[in-house]
Amino acid sequence: MPSNSSRSLDRIIRTLRSLMRSTGLPRPDRVFISTVTGSVQVEFDSGTAPDRLAALLLWVTRLDGVTLTWSLHADHTLIVTATARNAAGLMFGLTTLAAVSDFDGTPGPGDSVVLAGTFRLVPSVAESVTFEEVARLVHLGRAVAARRRVAGATAA
After folding, report:
1. Is 54 helix (H, G, I), strand (E, B) or coil?
2. What percent of the chain shows pLDDT beyond 90?
3. What is the DSSP letter of 26?
4. DSSP E strands: which ranges in the chain?
5. What is the value of pTM for the model shown?
6. Cα-flanking dihedrals φ and ψ of residue 71, to 5°?
């Protein structure tokens, strides 16, 4: 007879697969499942920084009780995280990382960094953000990438 933890794992995997298939969500690069807490941690590592952020945002549109935060590591890595739950109550943690250079990050006052001329982040300070702010960063990041492609094509 299967143990409670293997039943729990089966239930979590079925719930995760069902969510991804029924909504067409992008496939994450890593999934960590905890049967102890009944939670799923999803990470996005592939593609451009704006595409990874967009994948995270697509996931949160299908979940409830969403909390979004971003923070800046001392090495100038942007970390965007979301916590949420699905209708069945399964808890999700979603994470992606990006270099501030992907968003034309420039030094701001003190140790802060300004992303795409719009958002100022201070190292080691997690800030609550809205869906719209992250979506705007996706848009600005895609504009930065397009400018770089044009500049690269012109230089070649």
Report:
1. helix
2. 69
3. P
4. 30-34, 39-44, 64-72, 77-85, 91-99, 106-107, 113-115, 119-121, 127-129
5. 0.88
6. -150, 165
